[in-house]
Amino acid sequence: MEIKKYMIFTLIGGTGTYLATALANISDDLGPVTTVLICAGVGLALGAFLTFGRVAAFLGKRLKSLRLSLKDLRDKVLPQLGGLGQRLAAGLLGALLGASIIVVPWGVIKVGGLVGAGLSAPACSRPLVLRLITAPENVRVLRESVARFARTRLVDGCAPYAITVGIAPSIGELQYAFGNNWYRNDVNQERKKPFRRLFGPRPDAWIATSTGEARLAGVQLVTQESAVLRIGPSVASDRLVIGMLGGSAETVKSRLGRTPAKGYPLAKLWRMISTDLKMSVNYPQPELSTAGLVAISDLLGHKGVVDPEQRGVVAESVSSLLCDFMLMNTPKSRGAAESLALVIPHHSLTDYNEGRYDDDRCMGGRPTGEDRLGELISPDLSTLDYPFVTVDWPGETSAERTTGLNLLRDWLVENPLFDTHVPGQSEFEQAVRDSGVLAEARYQFSLLIPRIDAEIVLDVSGSMATKPRSLLIKLREALPGVTQVITPRDDLRLSAFNRPTENSATQVWRLRTTPANRSEFDDLINRVGNVIAGGFDAPISDAIKGVDRRNPRSGRALIVVTDGGPFDKEQDRMKSVGQTLRQAEKVTDLYVLALGYDGCRRSSPVGGKYRTCLTGGAESSEISEALRRLIAEIRTVNRDRQDGRR
Is the confidence at residue 636, as pLDDT, over 90? Predict the structure, then answer.
C-alpha cells in the first residue's frame, strides 16, 4: 500500500512540477531533457516526503517553527479528509511544492539577471576607425604603442577608437598615391579600361621615417584628388648606425683604437670595413626604403672615398635586410654573414638583438654571443626623427577624426615609439636630411647603379591563362610594383613565345618593338595586359634561339616568365638550355621567373649563363617581390661583370 501511495504522490508531484515549468516558460530555458530530469527528481522527492513517515518526521523536526508540522499534516489532517480528499490534497500540495521548488530558484536567477542587466553599462557603440601607416621596421612597435593608447582611452569598458597599422608604400608610390586619392598608378597602364586599385584603406596618419621624406612625398600634391599632409612633431628619435656580427665589430674597434665620443669618421670606417677587412656594406634599397635612401645620401656625401653601390645583399626594407642576414648566419654560411656590414636604424639593431623581428620569414629566438650585432657609430650618419603626419583627404575630414588623431599624436609625443640612446648621440647630431638632399640622392643613385639591358620573354601557352585567375593577369597586376626599381637608363623589351599547335614550330614575336625605360614602363605593362594566351608549351631553348637571331647586337639578358611547362618540352632537360646558351653569342644571361610554386622544380640545371630560377608564387604581391629581387640580382651580376669579377 505504501508503494502504491508513493507512486501516486510521485506522479502527482512530478506532473505538477512539469506544468509549472510549462506555464512559466521555464522549459524553454532548461531544454526538454533537463526539464524531464528535474521534474522526475522533484516528483520522487515529494512522493517520499508524503508517503514515508521517517522522511516526514525528519523534515518536521527541521521545521519546528511552523505551528502545523509536516508530520501532523500527514498523520492528522490528511486522514480526516477521506480517501478522495487525501488524494486531492496530496496532489495540490505536491503540485505547489513542486512548482515552488522549480519556479523559486529560476525566478531568483531571472530577477538577478534582469537587475544585473539594468545595472550594467549599455552596449558599446561602434568605435571610430583610425588608420596609420609606417615603414615595415616600425610596424610592430607602433602597433604595440597604439594598443596601449587605446587602453588609456576606455570609457565604461568601451574603446572609442579602433586603430590599425599598415605598411607604407615606397616614397615614389606615396608621391603618386597621396596625389591621386590613394589609388595605384594603374589607370596609365589600362588606358581606356581603367583598372583602379587602392593601395589599401586610405590612411588617416603616417609615421614617416624623417621630416625630409614627408616633405618629399608632399612636394607635388596640387590636384583636386590630392591629400593635404600636415607634418607634426616627432614621435620617436633614432639615427643610422653600422651593424655587424659582434666579433667583426670588435675587430674594427681594436684596429681603429678607442671609440671617440662622437664616433668614427665615416671615411675612416669605410676604409677599414671595405678595404682592410674586405666586407660589403649593405643597406635597404633606396628606391623602396627611406632608411636606405637616407643611408645612400650619407654615403654619397663621401663620394670618391665611399663606394655607395657596394652591396652583397639586396633587400627592400630594414626588416627584410635583417631577416636575410639572420637566415644567412648559419654554421654553413657564417663566413658570408661575417663579411657583411649593415647600415640600419639603431632601434632595428636593438630589436634584432632582442629577437624582435618584423619579417614573417624570421621567427627565431634571440641571438646570443657573437651572433648578436655590434654597433659602430659615426657623426656622418643621419638622424631620423619620425614625424606624425596627419593626412587630410578631400571631403573626408571630421571633427571627431581630428580630435582622435590629435589625442593619439600628443600621446605618442609623450610616450615615444623609441628614444634610442646611441653612445655619444647627445654630443653630436647630423642634421635630418631635407627633401632636396633626398631627391638628389635618389637621382644620383639611379645614375650609379648598373643599367639593365634585358628582354622579357613571356610564355603565352594556354596553361598561362588557366581560369579562374590566369597567371598572365597576375603578372600584369604585379608589374606596377616593379616600377620603382626601374631607372631612366634601363632598356627593357617585351616578347612572347609558344607553339600554335602541339607539333608546330615555335613562334617568337615582339610585343613591343622599342625598349622601355622607367618613363615608358606603363606602356609595357599595358601590352602585357593585352596578351591573349593560347596554344602549347614550347622549349625555352627555342625562345633563346629566336631572340638571339633577332638581336642586332650582343649584351642583352633574357628574363623568361613561365609556369615551368616549357622545361618539359626540352629534348634533353639536363643539357639543352645550357648548350643553347653557349651558342647564343648575343645573349649574356638567362633568368627565369617561374609563376606558381613548382616551376623551378621542373627547371634545367642552373649554371653558366643560366643565372637563376626564382619561384614567383601565384599572387600578384608575391610576383612583384620576386621580380624586384630578380632585377636586383641582374644589377649585381652586371656590376660584378663591370668590375671584372664575372
Answer: no
Name which of 546, 580, 548, 589 is nearest 452 in CA terms. 589
Which class for 185: exposed (0-12), middle (13-18), buried (19 or more C-beta within 10 A)?
buried
Considering only CA atoms, which of 350, 353, 348 is closest in space to residue 386? 348
Query: Among all chains, which residue has been given the C-alpha cell 640612446?
Result: 421
Q: What one-character DSSP code corresponds to residue 293?
A: H
Nine-digit cell at 516?
622601355
Torsion of the alpha carbons at 240, 241, 244 and 245, rounded to the nearest 10: -110
Dihedral pair phi/psi, residue 121, rounded to 5°: -70, 150
Binned at pLDDT 50, 70 and 90, residue 67 comes out as very low
Q: Residue 340 pairs with which residues in a beta bridge?
A: 280
Q: Which helix (H) or strand (E) holds 556?
A: strand 556-562
Residue 201, CB half-sphere, CA atoms under 13 Å: how many? 13
DSSP assignment string, 175-207: HHHHHTTTB-TTHHHHTTS----BSSSPPSEEE
Q: Which residue(s) pair with 419 in the sheet?
A: 237
Cα(511)–Cα(519) distance, integer angstroms? 18
User: What does the alpha-carbon distance between residue 301 and residue 307 come to, in Å, rounded to a whole number?
Assistant: 11
Report field, pTM of the whole predicted structure over 0.90: no
Of 46-60, 216-230, 301-315, which has the strongest mean pLDDT?
216-230
Residue-wise pLDDT for 426-474, tens only, equals 444 556 778 888 999 888 888 888 889 999 999 999 999 877 668 998 9
Residue ranges of alpha helices (H) inside 551-642 are: 576-583, 620-642
Say if residue 468 is preceded by a cis peptide, omega within 30 of 0. yes
Residue by residue, DSSP assigns 356-376 as --SSTT-------GGGSEEEE
3-state secondary structure 209-256: CCHHHHHHHCCCCCCCCCCEEEEEEECCEEEEEEEEEHHHHHHHHHHH
One-letter amino acid at 585 equals E
Using left for φ > 0, alpha for ψ between -120 and 50, and beta otherwise, residue 506 falls in beta
Nearest to 536 by CA among 512, 575, 560, 563: 563
The Cα–Cα gap between 220 and 179 comes to 7
CB atoms within 10 A of CB 419: 12
pLDDT in tens, 606-621: 999 999 999 999 888 8
